[in-house]
Write a structure and sequence with these properties.
Residues 104-129 have a biased composition (Low complexity). This protein is α+β, with helices and mostly antiparallel strands. It is built from six helices and 17 strands.
Length: 422
């Protein structure tokens, strides 16, 4: 009797085996669901990734020139031209405000020599004007007097007028609110803005970039315009909810101070902050676009929130970029590695149809994270309407039909120097 019951019990399935099999299938199902969710997330990211303007990391042209900060070219003042002895009185015609242009100051050692030359020329002309026969003195007295007056006026105007000084050409972009599409690692975010205000003496720049989960990054640069271009006085970084980091350019003591660190740096001529450098580059290219051929590298001393260093910015070449409204012809500039192993990079695309304003900005961090701004204004081929605007810049809606102002235009009141002091 014992044998049959034992055989019956041995034929039964162990009670724990179905439970183990069910657990195995449950984990397989969980893995399949997780894999499916990851695949869906990857597809979503790919569909929203900005693949319009891929960055070419391999193409680096051969360097053909290295440009360093130098003074800006000064054009002769309009007052240097000789006025007639009796200018006709007429009502001045109304004219459109002309865009200011930054110019350098004349070297001091050249002015006395040029004034002495003009005075000697005027003195030499007096004997000739007075050398007339006695019998014709009464007939030529009026003409001789006019000649002496004109010669003296010409010498005085030539001595007082500022003379042309060599230097790089520079044209500051006029004021405007610039609108950009923003991307974080290729995913579109809320639009960003660059608020730019400029005059013959000062400038103001505020860059606002919203980022997900972190908040809005705000970078502001304020300062004046001197003989070397934009001259920041204060640079402020506000990253989301973090406290502000401020860099102060003390031009009296020639020092750069920081709120983030007690360290100070010497302040060289032409020093920039991270974002004024972009407008400094735009102003230089606006002044002389032909000088920036592929391979030409310009060096900037750039200050961050706690340090400063030289940035070599190289001209890559002309490229076509794509915006949400269409295509733009641009010139690509890239910051070269500052040291061996430097993986952080900055790329800037300036568009001639936008008055050489930035059409695209990409900052790549060492870990591969990318912040990108792409122009989102209208692309209107007809620039006639914009030419009637005093500034020629897009309005707050982002109209991008910009005329390219000549490099030798004068400032308010017709003063080519823009009343710029060193």
């Amino acid at each position: 009797m014992a044998l049959p019951s034992a055989a019956g019990r041995s034929s039964l399935t162990p009670p724990g085996e179905p439970r183990a099999r069910w657990r195995t299938w449950r984990w397989i199902a969980v893995l399949l669901v997780v894999s499916l969710l990851h695949w869906i997330a990857a597809q979503w990211v790919e569909r929203h990734r900005a693949t319009l303007n891929p960055t070419d990391d391999e193409h680096v042209p051969v360097q053909v020139a290295l440009l360093k900060p130098e003074r800006i070219e000064r054009n002769p003042a309009a007052a240097a031209s000789v006025a007639p002895a009796q200018p006709p009185k007429r009502k001045p015609a109304a004219s459109k405000p002309r865009e200011h242009v930054l110019t350098a100051l004349q070297p001091a050692d050249k002015a006395p020599a040029q004034a002495a030359t003009a005075t000697s020329d005027a003195a030499a002309s007096e004997p000739t004007a007075n050398a007339v026969p006695a019998n014709a003195a009464s007939a030529a007295s009026a003409a001789s007097g006019d000649a002496n007056v004109n010669a003296t006026a010409s010498a005085t105007a030539s001595a007082d007028a500022p003379q042309a000084a060599s230097g790089v050409k520079f044209s500051v972009p006029p004021s405007g609110d610039l609108q950009y599409d923003t991307f974080y690692n290729g995913v579109r975010n809320q639009p960003g803005t660059i608020h730019w205000t400029s005059s013959a003496q000062r400038y103001d720049m505020v860059v606002s970039v919203p980022l997900p989960f972190v908040g809005t990054f705000v970078y502001s640069s304020h300062g004046r315009i001197d003989a070397f271009g934009l001259a920041p006085e204060q640079y402020v970084e506000k990253r989301g909810r973090r406290a502000e980091d401020i860099s102060i350019f003390n031009r009296t003591d020639k020092k750069i101070a920081f709120t983030r660190t007690p360290a100070t740096l010497p302040l060289p001529d032409g020093a920039q902050d991270r974002f004024s450098m972009v407008m400094q580059l735009a102003s230089l290219v606006r002044g002389d676009p032909d000088a920036y051929k592929p391979g030409v590298t310009r060096q900037f001393f750039v200050v961050d929130s706690d340090s400063g260093e030289n940035w070599p910015v190289e001209t890559i070449g002309d490229e076509t970029i794509r915006t949400a409204q269409g295509y733009l012809q641009t010139r690509h500039f890239k910051r070269l590695p500052r040291r061996e192993g430097d993986r952080r990079r900055i790329d800037v695309w300036l568009a001639p149809s936008l008055g050489w304003l930035p059409a695209r900005l990409v900052q790549t961090e060492p870990n591969g994270t990318q912040f990108e701004l792409v122009w989102r204004g209208k692309l209107n081929a007809d620039s006639g309407a914009a030419a009637d605007s005093p500034t020629g810049l897009p309005n707050t809606s982002g109209d991008a039909s910009l005329p390219d102002a000549p490099a030798n235009s004068t400032g308010p009141g017709g003063d080519p120097s823009g009343n710029i002091k060193p």
